[in-house]
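Team,

Forwarding the record for the chain on the shared tracking sheet. I've put the sequence and predicted structure together so nobody has to dig through attachments.
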Amino acid sequence: MPTLLKSIERGIDAVIRRVAFVALAGMILTITLQIIFRVFFDALVWSEEVARYLLVWTTFLGATLAYQRGRHIAVTFLVEALPKKGEIGVRLFANLAAIAFFAIVLFVGVRYMRMQSFQVSASLRIPMPVVYTVIPISALIMLYYAVIDTIELFVEPAPAVEA
């Protein structure tokens, strides 16, 4: 079962990396066009809005990638100094706290999307739930990653097969 979960995790990670890259590249392109048009032509009315929404998506997707790789700020030297059972206990507590947090963000994100269901963006007239969709999506993915991390605490890694 953990192998299947890890395969799903790798698939999700591959998709997120591509979407985050496209969002970041789109943001850079939009801002570059915005600068060029403000200097040499008339300002692009929609460019600030697109850049802002791509920044939101890039931020949330980047946070998802950082969480999956364990790259968020952490003080690990105390945990690593504990005996094995103590280390597992602290990691379990941290994972359960993360699961609770991501579940709350998922719930609030879906609720926020519903509250904004009647709004559209000022320039592009995009429904605002489309913009805010990234909040529950990223929370759900990080929740999945936290559950996998918790399961891995209790599952012994498979022994390496010698060739």
